Amino acid sequence: MAVVAFQDLDNFMQAGCYILVEQLLGAENTRRVEISDLMNETEELKILFRSKPASLQQCTCDLLHKNVAIITIISRGWEGCTSNDTIYMNSGESLECFKMNIQMAIDTAVQGWNGDLCPHCQIMRSLTIKEKEIINMMKNNKSMATITRYQKNRFGSSSYYSRDSIMKKVGITNKIGIYRFVNLIAQ
């Protein structure tokens, strides 16, 4: 028996992913649960589908250590891989690619090969002190001009490079995405 939970995905994506899991494992062997109930489940196989912003919002290392199959769905405006341990799927992929990625995530979780760090922790550890300062200033609603002046006085360089570096590490493809990321981790 497998339990399936969803985090921050629209109804159409949830329905599609659930149907694919039913096709892979059988409808009688699949049950849907809420994300809050996922850790209390006693079933051997637990699957979590979530959006890329949800994967960055909070630490989910405890789920990795409990061998939950975690699949991150990437929508427009985000890029994928920040590590080899996380299964990413693009929302525009074919059904066969979806099925293959779901099966790969299940196999990885069942065999206990989940990584040690979730995407949130990986990104937070990869940020430099300068990048973390920029994020903190952005959390406090400082303008980019204020941040640039501060960084130029403190480090002798502009913060625009650091902002682009943060965007690359997080997997954001547009300038608005950096503010979404800051809002996510500020919650």
From TrEMBL:
Top-rank lineage group of the source organism: Bacteria
Name of protein: Uncharacterized protein
Species: Yersinia massiliensis
Organism placement in taxonomy: Bacteria, Pseudomonadati, Pseudomonadota, Gammaproteobacteria, Enterobacterales
